[in-house]
């Protein structure tokens, strides 16, 4: 049945194309000769133009089991426990059945993906497909310019399903095309371009709130009262444990002073934008920044902040500190709350964390910060520029954007991983969410449907428990992402050099000084020279560079 | 030249075998050394070593011009200096102490036990250290008894160096003493016998037999250690430092690591590494020359 | 002939023993803690800030279950066993030969060779050039890649050479007079006399291969070749929150057992190596009688 439909579509397309272009070369994708077809050897070389095919809802066969490509994929903790190799996942096996293409996975040691990737580049040994950008300097665009991967933009017409998805919204096109109109990687789309989740939250001890008889605090002044009450009435030594660094988890905390942010962990860029101008918190509004630091310093000196907060840097320390009965509130991924509560209950049976909104200066104020830096899962898969059957490869990956593949990638196979509920919506089966072997949902999902595929996903499929859903809604209620700088902006090579030349030192300096102000090691008399010093470290040059990139992005 | 030829004829096997060994080093160490040229380039992965743009000393300048350049150099030298002062003699002392013990079982047990911490992963050791030195830690409370007013030692810049060095000793004294124990075992027993016959007591035996017996080993280890002065154990620093202690804790390797997180070019870290190597090599040559002059032992 | 031990000596020995006992206890502490923690209740362990001498909470072997039931752990052990044995044999042999040649006073270029070799301790091209080299030798994804490039360690070479230099030349001379070749002298005279140092080198090389992780992580990507440390690292990372993920359910990937498994992996990793030590120990607690080898 499917084959018949395909044949008629194909014939119709040929007819249409021959009418339009006058060249009547038939598509040979189903015949065994297809893999022998001389494909491109050099990047960007055009393929003998086949006709534009129609998008379809179903996955089409691309080969007959006689095509094998290699793909570079990062590892995951599920490998070694639940599966031996990516090719054992349900998704891979199903796609292989349905497309006739076999993918061999090159998977480096967990944690060494970027290093391995770089080494493979130096020895010219890259596999046919590459997942992500693997930290390549300059990102996807540089990968195209350096001849590593294929620019997909010129081939849009050969990928009807991808094209259809891409053109569904302006946002998608803005995020996916680079400043110069290139596409380096197949992206993963989100259905309806739904916003991603904030996954870090402010957690506060519900049981302690009950003890002091207060409500969940909203403003900073509320927080001051609550924390003081925690300290004096409950006698705990760590009413608040902020994150160890200024520009990390603590971005949640400072947002009420009208600062934004871009990244929670690691070496995130601490810039955000207001009305298209790049800002940096200390310089954005020095008055407010000082007020923020002074508030924190006051709280620290009154014992409302954990005196060891800067040492809580690794995961063990965090779990152990946040789950201690001495901890009143913390800033951490909110889905940890049940875990922390579980641990804390061993010492105090009514230990419970709940989500608090981001503190603000005045009630009703909105905050503008966001976690996911793009509404698209950018940079999923790229095609090696030296691949020897580009046309087939394009067709293969195009299949992932069909409705059938989207269902498969997102939810899996009916009866195995999901079931339809009364409204006809897919729901996860118990084997995924409450697995008897004790595997948690995330690793079950990955073991079956290895997350990184360029397809279309429903946000709904990420949520599994009530608590997380509630928390996420809470944070959506009070804010938006107006200050976000999308991660799809790209810096040119020169811009990147400027950024890396100054940024480490600026970050080191700012972090150190801010912590010194908070812990009282430095008096606020030096604040003005602190700001001066930051400026003298060329931060404005770096911001200019970002501004240029942001402007280019906005002009797309 | 003729002397060499004559030498060669007399010791053919030595030359051939020696040549083979040198070949091994040429292949596995000297060939890759060509990559050091990356320090003078703006290395780009796609261009490779031969295709990347040459920028002269730009990468070095980037390092020298950093406002933190002096700080990280000073911190590195100071930490290594203290390590040399305290952590170098410690295993030697341990070896001597063990050597005097008669009871074999006691000696062996102590030996085995002291070398165990070396195998406990750095992450666990540093976790323990942080636990002991944070505001509620056992060691902090001890320090308070002795009059310290730091709320928490691990967040105190002045406490970082002692914490680092003392824990170094704790972790590696046993393992590092093994070399010296072996050297002690290699001292000819007949010499002790001869000394005893001459009426020397324990202390004089130690002074005239033991000490000279392992002096070459000590000197060689010292020279090697001096050559390592620019390398502070980066993993440990990263695990122990935090924003409050950067002033004394941030060393060259941890600083370069943070730069590398933003800038994944190899050129910068190669340049700094080369800088370190040159300084180390100069120090090594000096130490070697001095040792040759004053103790007749030398590396080369 | 025993010398009578005066009170000064006795005091010294007592102080000596006391210091050693204290040191031993200080060194035993983290080891005991690790063993104790590896059997502890994970919840109590996550909360714990103290040094443990005994498992805390309800003892459990769950940590060991997780580690030892891992699919790849036994291949990991076998692989590491291979790398250790093959690596130690090759390494010690190569190092001994090199140390012997460079310690001969009659070998004129010896000093030059030592300079050439010591230089490589300080200067190296780094990750990329070394990888390119290994790749061009065709060693990527082979077991040899973990054995060959690291066969001769300069530090070990120097230590062994120093030991060989400590052996009187007269032994070599008399052996040569008896017609012995260089190799015979190395294997029958020098190695036995320097057995303490050789034992040390064996230990160092074996430990190096046992702990080795980094080379394997860049030269290998076939699971069946992975040594133990890679597998242990994987097991360890399974309980980790992937902090760069963006899923709302991110923390459900945190395993309560993370801390527990951390300790268990250490135990699993160090127990074998601790068992090796006593065998080597006897070689450097005894003195060596040079005279006994003469003749």
How is this structure best described in words?
The complex is a heterotrimer of chains A (556), B (300) and C (295). With 556 residues, chain A is of the alpha/beta class. Chain A folds into 2 domains: 66-193 and 376-416, Periplasmic binding protein-like II (D-Maltodextrin-Binding Protein, domain 2, 3-Layer(aba) Sandwich); 200-369 and 482-554, 3-Layer(aba) Sandwich (D-Maltodextrin-Binding Protein, domain 2). In chain A, 39% of the residues lie in helices and 12% in strands. The longest helix of chain A has 26 residues, at 493-518. Chain B has a single domain (68-295), classed as MetI-like (MetI-like fold). Chain B is built from 16 helices and 2 strands. By secondary structure, chain C is mainly α. Chain C folds into 2 domains: 7-60, no CATH class; 66-293, Orthogonal Bundle (MetI-like fold), CATH 1.10.3720. Helix content of chain C is 65%, strand content 0%. Chain C has helices at residues 7-38, 42-47, 62-68, 73-103, 110-122, 127-136, 154-165, 169-177, 182-193, 195-211, 214-219, 228-237, 258-281, 290-293. In chain C, helix 3 packs across helix 13, helix 4 crosses helix 7 and helix 4 runs antiparallel to helix 10 (195-211). Chain C is flat, with a radius of gyration of 25 Å. Residues 241-251 and 288-295 of chain C have low confidence and may be disordered. Chains in contact: A-B, A-C, B-C. At the B-C interface, helix 1, helix 2, helix 6, helix 7 and helix 8 of B face helix 1, helix 4, helix 5, helix 6 and helix 7 of C.
Residues in β-strands, percent of chain A: 5-15%
Number of discrete helical segments of chain B: 16
Number of separate strands of chain A: 14
Label the structural class of chain A.
alpha/beta
- CATH topology assignment of chain B: MetI-like fold
What is the mean predicted local confidence, pLDDT of chain A? 80
Mean pLDDT of chain B: 89
Number of folding domains of chain B? 1
Helix content of chain A: 25-40%
DSSP helix fraction of chain B: over 70%
Specify the CATH class of the largest domain in chain A. Alpha Beta
Strand order within the widest sheet of chain B?
1-2
**What integer value in Å does the Rg of chain A equal?**
26 Å
- Name the CATH superfamily classification of chain B: MetI-like
Low-confidence stretches of chain A: 1-50
SS elements, strand count of chain B: 2
